[in-house]
Amino acid sequence: MPALKAQLMDASAMNRALTRIAHEILERNGGCDDVCLVGIRRRGEPLAKAIAGKMAQIEGKTVPVGVIDITLYRDDLTPTREDSMPQVAFTDVPFSVTGQRVVLVDDVLYTGRTARAAIDALFKMGRPNQIQLAILVDRGHRELPIRADFVGKNVPTSRSEIIAVKVPDIDGDSAVEIWTLE
Length: 182
Description:
- The strands form 2 sheets. The protein has a 5-stranded parallel β-sheet with strand order 3-2-4-5-6, sandwiched between helices.
- Helix content is about 25%, strand content about 30%.
- The chain contains 4 helices and 8 strands, in the order E-H-E-H-E-E-H-E-E-E-H-E.
- It has one domain (about 10-70, about 90-160): Rossmann fold (3-Layer(aba) Sandwich).
- The chain has about 180 residues and is of the alpha/beta class.
- The longest helix is centred in the first third of the chain and has 19 residues, at about 10-30.
């Protein structure tokens, strides 16, 4: 049964990390022209919206935000029965990604497989000029050669630990916790 090991970030720390990420995205891209954010469903979506809101406050311009469902692009789908088919949510990217600098946003970077699936899904929509990756927590243990361009917090973990990111839209709270599997 999982046991709470520690709270790594509270709402205030998460807010500071997202503000820093917003500033870093703007600095790296020389502003927000031709920049859009795409949150990876589930918790990447509210994080992308929060970062875009902060970027808009800083620059005084609206930053387009979309959400992508990577379910069908995952490499670990091996359904054996019809009732075990994955539940696909919706993708909503109401703008063209072609020619844009797309910042993929997710809560935790672990093996890199989710980011790879999101990149595959993005290329089905068009050809971005550049894809950057913004992550709230990087916990290590990569299986693919993927790294984040923008990181809120690096947290070395063991494979027997879980990083849980809580966001108000889904969990009613803002926090990052580390849990151990016992």
